[in-house]
Specification:
- There is one protein chain.
- The chain is an alpha+beta fold.
- Among the domains are: about 50 residues; about 130 residues, Hect, E3 ligase catalytic domain fold; about 40 residues, no CATH class.
- Helices cover about 35% and strands about 20% of the residues.
- A hairpin with a 5-residue loop joins strand 11 and strand 12.
- The longest helix has about 45 residues.
- The protein starts with 9 loop residues before the first strand and ends with a helix.
- About 15% of the residues are buried.
């Protein structure tokens, strides 16, 4: 009967009283195989329609996956019907914006940025861990971790935060999302300088550019021990001076600024060089107009930093309020 799997077996040598592996067969085997193939075809058709639709909607800028950190999903009416877009998460979005702003300033190392973000309350999103045998049973949670050094660039380089969808379903081609990003292209590019960049052409196409290794900024320009390294030129060849400490026979180190590999020798002790720089700076005179401009520039920077401090204080207070509410909720449950 169609759709019925039978356990009955037939022996073609039964009338002779003999049985072999090859002489026994199941009459319903062909039916079973046909049923299995029909089920596979049906599953393939369903998956093709569902995944195919998701791919098409992704390619026009909608979101078909779990929302990334900083966003939450929302279904809205569109010209393609009711579709899913991303909206800023009330608690996570400000942290993502702050991460980009700190990186764009260029005044803090990655370690300092990570410590600052964790101080402001950055924690990864918590998710439930369910029992493999009973998916309705929650056996634990994962997430809720502070930002790590190894993850900072994953957030910074993800173009979704600039409102650009770029993934496998878009054939790795960047397209404008059907929703606003958390940061502007300008801020995204500033935070990712010397790594990646986003550009919008005159006809509205998005370009995602990866900076080649030979185009990256030279590392090691700033050095706390040799503050003027690469900032002052050699008096002989006009190439930037380097800074290092050579070791003497007795194991003592002698720090100095020097010119290297330019066909001549120039080396000056660090203390003598920096004293000369300090004396030179002391003798610089500034007229009143330049002084006013300098004062305005300093005040602008100060006001910006002061505003940043206020925003940080507000974020910290918001985090404290949230933790206080959680504490009260836990206490109420205990009662």
């Amino acid at each position: 009967m169609y759709g019925v799997i039978s356990g009955e077996k037939v022996n073609t040598l039964d009338h002779l009283g003999f049985t072999y592996n090859w002489s026994e067969y199941s009459p319903s085997k062909k039916t079973e195989i046909l049923e299995a193939e029909r089920a596979k075809d049906e599953l393939r058709d369903i998956m093709s329609r569902m995944i195919g639709a998701e791919i098409r909607y992704t390619q026009v800028g909608y979101w078909m996956r779990q929302p990334p950190f900083g966003y939450m999903s929302e279904k809205v009416e569109t010209r393609h019907g009711k579709r899913t877009v991303l909206r800023p998460h009330p608690e996570e979005a400000p942290l993502i914006r702050k991460l980009y702003e700190l990186k764009a300033l260029g005044t803090m190392s990655d370690r300092q940025i990570v410590d600052k973000m964790n101080e402001l309350g950055f924690r990864t999103r918590k998710t439930y861990v369910r029992d493999n045998n009973d998916r309705s049973k929650i056996i634990g949670t994962k997430g809720g971790n502070p930002l790590e050094m190894t993850k900072i660039n994953r957030y910074l380089e993800n173009p979704i935060y600039a409102g650009v969808v770029k993934e496998k379903w878009t054939n790795d081609k960047p397209i404008n999302a059907a929703f606003d990003g958390l940061v502007s292209f300008e801020l995204y590019n500033q935070a990712n300088r010397a790594r990646v960049a986003l550009h919008e052409s005159a006809d509205g196409d998005i370009e995602y550019e990866k900076v080649r290794p030979d185009e990256k900024a030279k590392k090691g320009v700033r050095n706390d021990e040799f503050a003027y390294r690469r900032f002052v030129a050699c008096p002989t060849c006009n190439n930037p001076l380097l800074g290092s400490a050579s070791r003497g026979k007795m194991g003592k180190y002698y720090p100095a600024y020097h010119c290297s590999n330019h066909g001549h020798y120039y080396r000056i002790p660090k203390q003598e060089f920096e004293t000369t720089i300090s004396e030179f700076v002391k003798n610089i005179s500034i007229n009143s107009e330049q002084l006013d401009a300098l004062t305005d520039a300093v005040m602008t920077v100060w006001e910006k930093k002061h505003e940043t401090i206020k925003e940080n204080a507000q974020a910290i207070q918001k985090r404290i309020d949230s933790l206080t509410e959680q504490k009260h909720a836990i206490v109420d449950k205990i009662k």
